[in-house]
Specification:
Number of strands: 7
Strand content: 15-25%
């Protein structure tokens, strides 16, 4: 359709664009736009469906299973990549590995008190994926962050209690001490190992 001149056609086309974008954001292999259009038209005009509810339900189950398997495979790859990175990193000079699997290196030693789980702290930090992609940074925002020591990911909670005020550590955090199988937002995928530069400014 190329002759889209009326206000109603513009609005209708906009609805189609929005629906198409939603499909493009969450596609599956073999998605058939012509079939989507046929189902949309049948529902809108009240026509008899060409595919039965049982067939549709069965198709949804199969496609959903395929998508879950694909996501599981991606997660396994991400976990393996993170584990390989941490295994190699652990062999480098200056890297300390704790019993939990947390890795850190001391960039600045610091000389103040160390916080406990019940404390609240002010920090500056810079967080990246293991490929260097920045996902969060208080330095970039120009504003330190304040939070309870026990209110952050496990890798942070453990590391903060090792750090004297004034210290700056680089943390290498396995996925099980970070956001695990859930990930966080769009940037941190499930099973991602993370790297943080953390500077402990003050115990509040």
């Amino acid at each position: 359709m190329s002759d889209l001149t009326t206000l109603e056609q513009h609005a209708s086309y906009g609805i189609g664009l929005q629906m198409g974008q939603q499909l493009a954001d969450n596609p599956f292999d073999g998605l058939d736009i012509a079939a989507v259009a046929a189902g949309l038209a049948a529902a809108f005009y009240g026509d008899e469906p060409e595919v039965s509810e049982d067939q549709i339900r069965a198709a949804f189950q199969v496609i959903s299973g395929r998508m879950q398997e694909a996501e599981s495979a991606k997660a396994q790859v991400a976990a393996a990549v993170g584990e390989a990175f941490l295994a190699e990193n652990a062999t480098k000079a200056g890297i300390v590995v704790t019993e939990s699997g947390l890795q850190y290196e001391v960039l600045t030693a610091g000389s103040g008190a160390k916080p406990t789980r019940s404390d609240k702290v002010r920090t500056h930090y810079h967080g990246t994926l293991i490929d260097g992609t920045v996902f969060d940074s208080s330095y970039n925002r120009g504003q330190p962050a304040e939070f309870p020591v026990s209110g952050v990911i496990a890798g942070w909670t453990e590391a903060l209690q090792l750090m004297p005020v004034g210290a700056k550590y680089r943390l290498y955090i396995p996925h099980n001490l970070a956001y695990g199988e859930r990930g966080a937002g769009g940037a941190i995928k499930p099973y991602s190992a993370l790297i943080f530069d953390v500077e402990l400014l003050e115990i509040l």
